[in-house]
Amino acid sequence: MTATALDTVIRDSLPAPIRNRVDHLIHLKGIGRVGALRLALDLFWRAFDTRREVGACVGLVPQPYDSGESRADQGISKQGNRRVRALLVEMAWCWLRHQPGSALTQWFNRRTQGTGPNRRARRIAIVAVARRLAIALWRYLKDGVVPEGAQLKPA
Fold first, then answer.
1. Which of 14, 40, 65, 60 is nearest to 137 (CA)?
2. What is the spatial distance between Cα 63 and Cα 115, in angstroms, rounded to a whole number?
3. Domain locations in the chain?
4. What is the DSSP annotation of the chain?
5. pTM of the full predicted structure?
6. pLDDT: is 40 or 2 the higher one?
7. Segment 51-71, tens digit of pLDDT
8. Is 111 exposed, middle or buried (0-12, 13-18, 19+ CB in 10 A)?
9. What are the angstrom distances between the C-alpha of 18 and each of 55, 92, 98, 105, 121?
10. pLDDT tens digits along 68-95
11. What is the 3-state secondary structure (H, E, C) of 63-107?
12. How high is the pLDDT of residue 77?
């Protein structure tokens, strides 16, 4: 069985709402069929009311430490679906590569500009891009709002 035939069999076995979400997601450059399918099945199968719910579902929200007089940020909570979180980080790297004119890519470039070979700063910033990408994709699926500056694949 060829890859195209297998994709067709998998696609036809999905419920119509999931199939529609996958079809919408793969119209964006930088998002492939496998990533769109995983997001549709593992993340966007449920309805979210706010962007904070989307971030919390994948564990990409800040976790503050507040103990009396001392307050600190402990990084992200990591209390969501870890497979989706890893997928979103990978998708964020692909997004930077395939969507150079998007607002997310420009934000990342501004944040990491001047850091030189500092990999830690880039890794921290890519997690923030992953969170923002998850929210942008949720808005895209929910309201049809294409992420700012994003390019669609040719039909």
1. 40
2. 25
3. 16-63+74-143
4. --HHHHHHHHHHHS-HHHHHHHHHHTTBTT--HHHHHHHHHHTTTS--SSHHHHHHHHT-SEEEEEETTEEEEEEE---S-HHHHHHHHHHHHHHHHH-TTSHHHHHHHHHHTT-TT-HHHHHHHHHHHHHHHHHHHHHHHHH--PPTT--BPP-
5. 0.84
6. 40
7. 888 888 887 776 666 677 777
8. middle
9. 20, 22, 24, 28, 36
10. 777 766 666 667 788 998 999 999 999 9
11. EEEEECCEEEEEEECCCCCHHHHHHHHHHHHHHHHHCCCCHHHHH
12. 64
Tokens at 153, concatenated: 């694949």
> Which residue type, as a one-letter code, is found at position 150?
A
